[in-house]
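Example record

Each entry pairs one chain with its bound ligand, coenzyme A.
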Amino acid sequence: MAITIAPVLEDRRDDAIELAVLCFGEDYRNAAIKDFGAAYKEALYQPRTLGAWDGEKLIGLIQGMNALTYGNVECLAWLCVHPDYRGRDIAKTILKAAEDRAIRDRFHDKPGSFILSADTGPAYYNALGYEGSLMHHGDVAYMIKIYRP
Ligand SMILES: CC(C)(COP(=O)(O)OP(=O)(O)OC[C@H]1O[C@@H](n2cnc3c(N)ncnc32)[C@H](O)[C@@H]1OP(=O)(O)O)[C@@H](O)C(=O)NCCC(=O)NCCS
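Structure tokens for the complex follow.
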């Protein structure tokens, strides 16, 4: 079955939490509950979560976060793919879908920047066009990609 990219709505937030914990580890459970759980209800921290779907099964994630998003800057986090589905360009496809959405809905085709929270080594993000890491927020490093139309 083809993999499709579509928003993760609130009724599937538990699937998002479990996939994030599977990919990042049990230490991230509280952060995942905070970001994917209560966050659906907090206007200031409202996630715009996109998923990769194999039919009804959620197999990939990315979250657009308002917390660090302002002007033509889009902050993205929780990029992950189920272990059984890795190495098939799914992360690349999810990230591009999130970037395209920001370009269309927020940047309105003007220049902007993407900031991606980067728990993994830079090599992975370099492969996706990101550079850095330029800034730190707690234990998390961020990498950046400039969009020029
Ligand atoms: C990192 C992760 C999202 C990659 O998912 P994926 O769907 O297998 O990645 P893709 O197939 O889309 O690969 C995209 C590119 O990154 C490269 N890549 C993938 N994993 C990599 C790694 N661990 N290190 C370096 N490069 C990597 C691929 O070779 C590919 O590059 P290419 O287009 O030049 O060939 C997945 O392994 C994962 O969920 N890991 C655990 C969570 C995590 O660390 N997420 C990162 C956000 S903090």
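The mean pLDDT is 86.
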